[in-house]
Structures are given as C-alpha cells and as structure tokens.
C-alpha cells in the first residue's frame, strides 16, 4: 500500500513524482504559455503591450516591469523618471545590440531589438 503524499496547497505532483510549486510550472491552465511569451502579449511595434506586462508581473511576483516610455525625448523633462528610464534602456539595449546580435539581425528593421529601440525613441 502506497503512503498518501502530504501535498501543500499551491503545489502539485509531477509525473516523475516530484513536487513542484504551481507558479513554477510552465504549462498553466489551458496548457498554454503566458501572454508575455506569445504574440498577444507583444506589441507589433516592439516591446510588450499592457496585457504582456500584466501577464509577466503575474508570473513573476515582485517584478517592477513597466510598459515602454514612448514619449518623444523633446517632450520629456530632463532628469525626470521617464527620461532616466528611457536613457538607461537605450544605453543597455544598444549595448546588447552591438554585442549579442548578428549583422543580419542588427540590420533587420523588423527584428525585435530594433523594433524595441525604435519604440523607445533610441
């Protein structure tokens, strides 16, 4: 006779009989990935849309992810929170583009990194 497993609330048993937290399990209800990883959570012009950001924050409690600063740099007050976020993002992503992308991706106007840089007015 098998001993009954004491499974805490918020956990479930995997097929290999290990116990895993529900929030760590990739396949949620409906068997699909979160919106931030699918087309419906991404903005066609680059980055995540509001639904994608909400989905990411649900999957990663404590996250401070926000949507892009799309205001033109000339309209932002120098030194404001949004201006600093934009400046930091542009510097960080420009570095990623130089170091981590191929020449083909770097020159492709439809690559996700170039779309994101355009959206942030970098």
Radius of gyration: 20 Å
In round numbers, the mean pLDDT is: 84
User: With helices defined by DSSP (H or I, 4 residues minimum), what is the helix count?
Assistant: 4
H/E topology pattern: EEHHHH
Structural category is: mainly alpha
How many individual β-strands? Answer: 2
Kindly state the percentage of residues in helix: 25-40%
Portion in strands: under 5%
Any low-confidence stretches, pLDDT <50, length ≥5? none
- Taking the alpha carbons of the first and last residues, their distance comes to 65 Å
Strand order, sheet with most strands: 1-2
Q: For the report, how would you describe the main beta sheet?
A: 2 strands, antiparallel
- Global outline: elongated
Provide key terms for this protein.
122 residues, elongated
Layout: helices, strands, pairs:
Blueprint: E1 11-13, E2 19-21, H1 50-59, H2 81-100, H3 103-107, H4 112-119
Antiparallel strand pairs: 1-2
Structure description:
The protein is mostly helical and 122 residues long. It contains four helices and two strands. Strands 1-2 form a two-stranded antiparallel ribbon. Strand 1 (11-13) and strand 2 form a beta hairpin. The longest helix is centred in the C-terminal third of the chain and has 20 residues, at 81-100. It is elongated, with a radius of gyration of 20 Å. The relative contact order is 0.11. The mean pLDDT is 84.
